[in-house]
Structures are given as C-alpha cells and as structure tokens.
Design goal:
It is a single chain. By secondary structure, this protein is of the alpha+beta class. Helices cover about 30% and strands about 25% of the residues. The chain contains nine helices and 17 strands. β13 and β14 (about 255) form a beta hairpin. The protein is globular, with a radius of gyration of 20 Å. The chain starts with a strand and ends in a 5-residue tail after the last helix.
C-alpha cells in the first residue's frame, strides 16, 4: 500500500554507534575521516580489532585518481581536458557503464554529460558563468550520453568539448568500493557512510538491522541529524538521498537549485524537495535519487510504480505548498515507527 502523509522530509544521516565495544563476534570499531569534500563514517565488527583506516583511505585515494573532477590528474579530469588516449581504469569503466544504464532507464533524466551546463550555473568544477538563454542553447549541443561511449577503454565523444560529471554517481560508488573491501575481509557486520550515502551489512551491535535517519528538507540545513523526518531499518542494502535544500543560491529573488535538467539546461522548478532511494548497491541508489530530482514527484512516482526493484521515499510540496510524503510499499516495510 502506498501512502501520502503530511510530514516533512529528507537527506540521509547514518545513525552510527560510537567508540569501541565488544560483542560475541569481536570488537566494534568506528573510524571517521574526510574524503571527496565531505566526511566518512564507518562502523564494523572485527574479531581481531583491526584498524582498517589506512587501507580504506588508500582505496579512496586510488578511487579519486579515477573519478574525481576536482583532481586535475584524475582520469575523468584528463578526459574532460581533451587529453588524447586517456585509458579508463576499472573504477571508471564500472561507473560509466552504470551511468549509461540509468540514463537509458530514466529516459535521459540522469546524464553525466550535463557537466558543461552544471559548470555554467556554478555547481560544478569550474567558475560560474553569466547565464542566459543563448549560452544554455550553445551548451546543450554538448549534452547527451548517447553522444559518448567507451571503445577499448577510451572515451569516444560525438564532438569536442563534451565533459563528464560523475559526482551524482561516484560518491555512491565509493561507498560500494569500501563495502566490497569489508566483504573481501569477511567482515559480516558493517556500515559505510560517505556524505550521507550508506551501505550496510549484517546487524548493528544490538543485533538489529541498521537504522538510518532521513533529515527534514529545510533550506540551508547543513548539519545532518538535527531534525529527522523518519528512520529506515535496512541490512544488506544501500541508501542514498538527493535534495535541493542544501545546495542552491538566490539571485534577484529567484532560487536556483543545483539539480539541472539535462533536457532544458536549467535548474529544476518543481515541488519535489528530496528523494531517498534504497537499492542493492549505493552507486545506483545515488544515480536514481538524482534522476528522480530531475523528474519531479509525478514522473518519479510513476517510474517507481513500474520499477519495483527500487524503494524510495519522496518529499514534495503539493499544489497548496504543503509538505507531503509518498513512499513505495517496500519502503513502508522498513520504516521505523520510532524517531
């Protein structure tokens, strides 16, 4: 059963255990740090009390050298610079192919080639431009994932000047990379969180499914967990949220969100405030959450009703400007009654 309620909602904060405690399968440990312009928090149970922070940060460094648009030496940055014969590594290839998959599934709502337009609006990896309709029209010729492909692990583009922005999928993928590290180490119980994107396995230290909080979408709210809308209980799955209430700017009384519609080249102007997606992997959860923010509430809901392998929690303004919430039947099963 799908529900619509009058609550407020969304972005994600993992409810992590802190410190180091012991259990019948070993010690519980928590490590934290900074990566990709945000924080990461990891909680796991290990019988040998092994501190994996050094190995995890090495992995994150290698990951950034592949997919970070903020590192001039990364693979994606060198491709964006037009340097010839740059070869994609496995990180890049997996992320690119997943982006192609979500692009096709969403009819282009998710499109990593939107980078030139995102940059122009000031939400990318270059300086903001003076935007007008002529500039947007000129940039749209560089947008469309059907215009790029990987051939022998090299990027082939329809026209020079096309660039890729992996930010809406790479952070979720980074969560998966760290989670796969724990799987390889035979760690059964863990939670990995980077910038609010989460993947977890097994149980928490209380022997229960992991509890993940969803923040209320309050404009300018920068500190996760201060005002929570709901709690989701998951295990063996991933969760990601996209919303417009943290990254935006106002000019001449107009609010410009960081979510750019690839079909128009303009920030979205609809009532969907945030989309939280639960999926098997965090990379796709991240990408679909972004796609739903492009689609808006009605299109996202129709998509979710047809694609039941995804669960989602959507927060939106109705025609009267009231906060409302809609969620899938699968999401209803994992929502906690306790805040």
């Amino acid at each position: 059963m799908h529900r619509v309620t009058l609550w407020a909602g969304a972005l994600v904060l993992a409810l992590l255990v802190s410190g180091c405690t012991t259990g019948n399968r070993g010690a519980w440990l928590k490590i934290s740090g900074y990566t990709q312009g945000t924080t990461y928090n990891i909680t796991y149970q290990d019988p040998d009390s092994t501190d994996y922070q050094e190995q995890l940060e090495k992995l994150l460094g290698e990951f950034d050298q592949s997919l970070s648009t903020y590192l001039p030496s990364s693979i994606v940055s060198r491709m964006n610079q037009g340097i010839p014969d740059v070869v994609a590594d496995e990180y890049f290839r997996i992320c690119f192919l997943a982006a192609e998959e979500v692009y096709a599934a969403t009819g282009g709502a998710f499109d990593i080639t939107v980078a030139p337009v995102v940059n122009a609006w000031g939400f990318g990896f270059t300086e903001r431009s003076r935007v007008d309709s002529a500039l947007i029209d000129s940039l749209l010729q560089f947008v469309g994932m059907n215009k790029v492909s990987l051939r022998e692990n090299k990027l082939v583009r329809e026209r020079e000047g096309m660039m890729l922005d992996m930010n809406a999928i790479a952070q979720g993928y980074a969560v998966d990379v760290l989670a796969e590290f724990f799987d390889a180490e035979n760690i059964e119980n863990y939670l990995v969180e980077i910038g609010g994107e989460v993947r977890c396995s097994g149980k928490n230290r209380f022997g229960l499914d992991w509890r993940i909080g969803i923040d209320k979408p309050i404009d300018g709210l920068q500190l996760p967990g201060v005002q929570m809308q709901a709690i989701v209980q998951i295990s063996g799955r991933s969760l990601a949220t996209s919303g417009n209430y943290r990254r935006f700017y106002e000019e001449d009384g107009i609010k410009y969100s960081h979510t750019i519609d690839p079909s128009t080249g303009y920030p979205v102007q609809h009532g969907l405030l945030s989309a939280t997606v639960v999926a098997s992997d965090c990379m796709r959860a991240d990408a679909y959450a972004t796609a739903f923010m492009v689609m808006g509430y009605e299109k996202a809901r129709r998509f979710l009703e047809k694609h039941t392998y995804l669960d989602a929690y959507l927060i939106f303004n109705d025609e009267m400007g009231e906060y409302r919430v809609w969620y899938t039947a699968g999401m209803e099963k994992i929502l906690s009654e306790e805040l």
